[in-house]
TrEMBL record:
Name of the featured protein: 4-hydroxy-3-methylbut-2-enyl diphosphate reductase
Keyword Iron-sulfur: yes
Keywords, sorted A to Z: 4Fe-4S, Iron, Iron-sulfur, Isoprene biosynthesis, Metal-binding, Oxidoreductase
Originating organism: Novosphingobium decolorationis
Names of required cofactors: [4Fe-4S] cluster
EC number: 1.17.7.4
Note accompanying the cofactor annotation: Binds 1 [4Fe-4S] cluster per subunit.
Molecular function terms from GO: 4-hydroxy-3-methylbut-2-enyl diphosphate reductase activity
Binding-site residues for [4Fe-4S] cluster, renumbered to this chain: C36, C120, C219
Pfam families reported for this sequence: LYTB
Length: 332
């Protein structure tokens, strides 16, 4: 369980307390959920690289923020490291879906390493926008979470001092740029849609000339999964979000569920479920972050059916058909 979110016992509504613990459990499953096109692509890059080069293949940082996925790739021959200097000479290295600063592939090239970039194309799109805004003489206000790999990677696309991180509306109020400054804003792709909209509104109110991105930076998968949770959570006493505690998009799903009136529990897999959480609960929602495989969803459903009689219903708010091409090194 992720600490910032209260347990059902702490925040369940009064109707939850009155419900029978032996009553059938109604399970509302949100869709879309789970893997997005960028995560599918990143995992396939690692698997194909292992097939092409043979193990071991090194991966700088977790390819995606999911322990189940990472452990599965380790079993196939992937070795995960935090820094490039942990990669021996003569072996291939892959950069994670979150993106890396420009200095990382430059250092890999200088060492003569074969490298593959698994950066999500939607993150790469933000990188290119950052370069263009800097080239046009604008300073960038970047909306994101300090220390997140995607933020670090995006800051590393432009000269030092070219960006200022903005995490909250209060941060906007504290900015000291003049009202007519040449500014642009961009954002991390995995943020809360609602929170980001509020921050953007504050930026635009204070800096009317600020340049906006040509298209929404928050990726389609993040928006779709949050919208699905908003559809399901208001009818649930408890919402399970399958995802890692360091997964930004999973944390945002839990926040959305909380704001929609459900108690939110962030879990990594079915074994994390405490049966006591279901006491007094008769409606449960279920979703999964963009780096959580559908197998974990099925595992959670099976666990709930072990604990209670379950009737389940899926609510589909969008259909996703997007896919991304693999690097040429793996297709030729």
């Amino acid at each position: 369980m992720n600490a910032p979110f209260p347990s059902p016992a702490e925040s369940a509504p009064a109707s939850c307390e009155a419900a029978s613990t032996k009553a059938p459990l109604r399970l509302f499953i949100a869709a879309p959920r789970g893997f997005c096109a960028g995560v599918d692509r990143a995992i396939e890059i690692v698997e194909r690289a292992i097939e092409k080069y043979g193990p071991p293949v090194y991966v700088r940082h977790e390819i995606v923020h999911n322990r189940f996925v990472v452990d599965g790739l380790k079993a196939k021959g992937a070795i995960f490291v935090e820094e490039l200097d942990e990669v021996p000479d003569g072996v291939p290295v892959i950069f994670s879906a979150h993106g890396v600063p420009k200095s990382v592939p430059a250092a890999a090239t200088e060492r003569g390493l074969d490298w593959l970039d698994a950066t999500c194309p939607l993150v790469s799109k933000v990188h290119r926008q950052a370069e263009r805004q800097i080239a046009d003489g604008r300073h960038i206000l970047f909306i994101g979470h300090a220390g997140h790999p995607e933020v670090i990677g995006t800051f590393g696309q432009v000269p030092e001092g070219g960006m200022t991180l903005v995490e909250t509306v209060e941060d906007v109020a504290a900015l000291d740029f003049p009202a007519d400054a040449e500014l642009a804003y961009l954002s991390q792709t995995t943020l809360s849609v609602d929170d980001t909209a509020a921050i953007i509104a504050a930026i635009q109110a204070r800096y009317p000339k600020v340049a906006a991105p040509k298209a929404e930076d928050i990726c389609y998968a993040t928006s779709n999964r949050q919208a699905a949770v908003k559809r399901v959570a208001p009818d649930c006493q408890l919402m399970f979000v399958i995802g890692a505690p360091n997964s930004s998009n999973s944390l945002r799903l839990a926040e959305v569920a909380q704001r929609s009136g459900a108690c939110a529990q962030l879990i990594q897999r079915a074994s994390d479920i405490d049966p006591a959480w279901l006491e007094g609960v008769d409606t449960v929602g279920l979703t999964a972050g963009a780096s959580a495989p559908e197998s974990l969803v099925n595992e959670v459903i099976a666990r709930l059916k072990e604990l209670r009689d379950v009737s389940q219903q899926e609510f589909v708010t969008a259909t996703e058909t997007i896919s991304f091409k693999l690097p040429k090194q793996l297709t030729t």
